[in-house]
Fold this protein.
Amino acid sequence: MQNIALLGASGSIGRQAIDVCRKHADKVKLVAIAVKSSLEFAIACAHEFDLAYVVISDPELEKSVSADAFPAHTKVLFGTGRLSELCELDEIDCVVNALVGAVGISAGYAALSCGKRLAYANKESIVIGGDLLMPLAAPGQLIPVDSEHSAIFQCLIGEPHEAIFKIWLTCSGGPFFGMTRAELARITAADALAHPTWLMGDKITIDSATLMNKGLEVIEAHHLFDVPIYSIEVLIHRQSKIHSMVEFTDGSVKANLCAADMRMPIQYALSYPDRWEASCAHLDWHAEAPLAFARVDAEAFGCLALAQQAGRTGGTAPCILNAANEVANEAFRAGRCTFLDIERIVAHVLEHMEAFPVESLEHLASVDTEARSLAARQLER
């Protein structure tokens, strides 16, 4: 029986992780959750799972909680600083990090430092802090939840690292596959939030539309699997059935295929190295359409190239990239900039901030702040 702490419990990944916990209640026990501000959701989870701990990141909500809202034994903590404390609790065996954005890095660092298994969907923490986090991870301690990286992880089991020739990172292409830049200039936030395959949170859905998400995943794969950026190739696969592939030096290729259901990689991150009964339906491969592939239009979707550039530069460049993108992504969703402005703003910040070797979490926090400030100023132009 694993005791689980779930960070970002009210988001898309978090809710699907809860489904897995329900399905396999004989194997995992949800002991603690963290939410940003979803108070009613947290209360319901506390009663359903008899939680020992709940963290609510928004400290302003503390005055809104009545004395009898949570079970009497549930310890309720407030503020983002409590996330790391949750990861360090002795009774926690595995931390599922489904937080969105750079806020997740400190919690991931704490979990790895304490020897906890880290099942993580918070790609930004590896993108910006891979130089700090990866040296802390023992073999089998850090298991990716992103469907692509879970696929690569599974394809590499039992394979020597030196046999890797190329990683094929698959991509649905988002809702605007095939569009020109002139067409992309007219895209609204509502258009971009209609992803053709996956049901995700708003931030990652916009990142998927710009292909920034795929760029972040390239950097993530670079850190996770210790391969150079040039050995990771993005491949459009609209059906989202092949979740990624690894090509080896002898020319053979391993691929991971399954339904487009995030409960699959979430469950594997908890079950590894075992496999449990599926939490979603099996595919009928007789009924599936032929699988097809295409190249990315790098000219139309420039965010991918910016991420690859930041990955090759290394150091604090991915932190700069991520911070600028988070600012521009939020501004686009709020109607304060255009779809193509996201790329413009990120490019400007990368051009005007020098990258340095990563020194510490505090160093990354300082770089993050500076990049966000520069991106915000660029928004006003």
